[in-house]
Design a protein that fits this description.
Layout lengths: L1 E6 L2 E4 L4 E9 L6 E7 L6 E6 L6 E3 L9 E4 L4 E6 L8 E8 L15 E2 L3 E6 L1
Parallel strand pairs: 2-11
Antiparallel strand pairs: 1-3, 3-8, 4-5, 4-9, 5-6, 7-8, 9-10, 9-11
Length: 126
Amino acid sequence: QVQLVESGGGSVQGGGSLRLSCAASGRTFSRYDMGWFRQAPGKEREFVVTINRSGSSTYYADFVKGRFPISRDNAKNTMYLQMNSLKPMDTAVYYCAAAYTGSSYVPTSRNEYDYWGRGTQVTVSS
């Protein structure tokens, strides 16, 4: 089992920044690919970004490329999402997730992730 807890959400004006954290406990954090997803009211949960076990490979959804750099610190069992140039369309609950793939493939689909946090709300006003 892997327990994931998100933090860092809040309310911000458009153009502002937030930094989300995802703290992991349980099994060895460095064995898992990690990802961020988000879900806006009335919409399905969508992929935002993923990072592989070592942090050497990332993949971003087009709508956050260049704005939301992802990183991880395996020594601290923590993943981060630096959210810059926020837009009202970024308003959503943000979830972190862990996937054990055992390969070099970096997962981008919800169904590929094994563990989920409870989410943290991000609200961006215009």
